[in-house]
Amino acid sequence: MYLQITVYCLYQIVKREINQGDNAMSIETADNKVKPPSQNKATLRWIILGMTALVLVLNYADRAALGVAGPHIIKDLGLSGTQFGLIASAFFFSYSPFCFIGGWLSDKYGPRTVMGIAVAWWSLFTGLTALGSSFVLMFIIRFLFGFGEGPQGAVSTKTMHNWFPQRQMSTAMGLAQGATPLGGAIGTPLVVALIGIADWRWSFVVLGIIGIFIAIAWFAVVRDRPDLHPWATQRDIDLQREKLTQPILSADDKGEPSLGFYCRMPVLLATSVAFFGYGWVLFTFLTWFPVYLSEVRGVDLKGLAFAGSLPWVFGVIGFASGGFVSDILARRTGKPIGARSAVIVIGLVATAIQFAFITYVATTLSAVLLMSGVVFSLYITGAQYFAIIGDIVPSRRLGGVMGYVHAIANLSGIISPVVAGEIIDRTGNWTLVFFTAAGICLLGCILVSFFGRERKIEVYLKRNESKS
């Protein structure tokens, strides 16, 4: 009942956001007054959001499949905990650099082309996972798989930035990126069902085929910007140009500020560390929670379909609600960066406290519910990392900067599964696994609470001006 009420409330908020976006009104901004757009309806951006969300559902369904099939893969291939952790990490050795490379390419060639090719690539290697017959072969396949999945964070951010006004940016990212836990919620029972029908290999084949069809649909529906889309109205174009604040440019900017100017900003470095902590918790959960439920709590395959998918449902709600709250605070305070930072700090503190105590609850149901709370509070922060960058960085640099921050964050995906595997192999202590993740998560909170304020940004800009 609680879940139904929450979903209904979110539906009403989404409906209000759409209606607000379609009302003709003047918006006062920091530097200008935006004229009301034409009276034609502007709903195309929500279709683009829907396509982006569909791609991200697939993204996490494909990614979550390894963790769900993990107990069967470990048994079938005779892997140790450390070896399985290395297979999970192999993905991130390519994923992390391609977060940046994919974002940079989207600045150069546009998000439509980069995302479409990426979806086709990762779907191909999702299917080829079925051929994994040894540790080495699985490591290579997952490494190649990561090349395709890497661009999704930066490219989806650039797509939303190119289609939505700033006052709806966090909402758009919350709804789009909220599809990632939905992918886990859908992918978990799907993979379990396919394992029950055939074996773990067929689950990857089916997901790979679905991905090829989605890549074709992406190219058919999506364009880089409203002014390039044959279905767009003038209102679609005008709405995207609305701003609450202007992007930050260098004091001596006579044309194009460098990537380094943004990447050195303390607020973005702090955001990167917080995003790293977010990733450490997420990838520990993604890789090891199904194994923990199976080996420690004795959950069977049928129970895993429910226990493994429930936290993802709460993640969807957390991602969407965090985006709404952030945009509401941004509009009311006129300080978008401060609003995003506050949501990050509150969400990560709640995440760390809950994650540290998973092993202390008495029953499996309690552990699953507590993990659902972890994923909910973690994903409340999910849209904020993208939105902060969108508030600061102009569109022509957004893909590269977002890719840089995303790459730093996803280094956690290389380290955390292996660290967890080593802890489990050497000590068998799952409590230590969860406490380690909680501590790293809290470090990001401290940095964002200090640097994620407009005053600190002003200090950086003045220092930069004095050097120029």
TrEMBL record:
<dbReference type="GO" id="GO:0005886">
    <property type="term" value="C:plasma membrane"/>
</dbReference>
<feature type="transmembrane region" description="Helical">
    <location>
        <begin position="43"/>
        <end position="61"/>
    </location>
</feature>
<dbReference type="InterPro" id="IPR000849">
    <property type="entry name" value="Sugar_P_transporter"/>
</dbReference>
<feature type="transmembrane region" description="Helical">
    <location>
        <begin position="200"/>
        <end position="221"/>
    </location>
</feature>
<feature type="transmembrane region" description="Helical">
    <location>
        <begin position="117"/>
        <end position="145"/>
    </location>
</feature>
<feature type="transmembrane region" description="Helical">
    <location>
        <begin position="342"/>
        <end position="362"/>
    </location>
</feature>
<comment type="similarity">
    <text>Belongs to the major facilitator superfamily. Phthalate permease family.</text>
</comment>
<feature type="transmembrane region" description="Helical">
    <location>
        <begin position="267"/>
        <end position="289"/>
    </location>
</feature>
<dbReference type="InterPro" id="IPR020846">
    <property type="entry name" value="MFS_dom"/>
</dbReference>
<feature type="transmembrane region" description="Helical">
    <location>
        <begin position="401"/>
        <end position="420"/>
    </location>
</feature>
<dbReference type="InterPro" id="IPR036259">
    <property type="entry name" value="MFS_trans_sf"/>
</dbReference>
<feature type="transmembrane region" description="Helical">
    <location>
        <begin position="81"/>
        <end position="105"/>
    </location>
</feature>
<keyword id="KW-0812">Transmembrane</keyword>
<keyword id="KW-1133">Transmembrane helix</keyword>
<dbReference type="Pfam" id="PF07690">
    <property type="entry name" value="MFS_1"/>
</dbReference>
<dbReference type="InterPro" id="IPR011701">
    <property type="entry name" value="MFS"/>
</dbReference>
<feature type="transmembrane region" description="Helical">
    <location>
        <begin position="368"/>
        <end position="389"/>
    </location>
</feature>
<feature type="domain" description="Major facilitator superfamily (MFS) profile">
    <location>
        <begin position="48"/>
        <end position="456"/>
    </location>
</feature>
<protein>
    <submittedName>
        <fullName>ACS family hexuronate transporter-like MFS transporter</fullName>
    </submittedName>
</protein>
<dbReference type="InterPro" id="IPR050382">
    <property type="entry name" value="MFS_Na/Anion_cotransporter"/>
</dbReference>
<keyword id="KW-0472">Membrane</keyword>
<keyword id="KW-1003">Cell membrane</keyword>
<feature type="transmembrane region" description="Helical">
    <location>
        <begin position="432"/>
        <end position="452"/>
    </location>
</feature>
<dbReference type="GO" id="GO:0022857">
    <property type="term" value="F:transmembrane transporter activity"/>
</dbReference>
<feature type="transmembrane region" description="Helical">
    <location>
        <begin position="309"/>
        <end position="330"/>
    </location>
</feature>
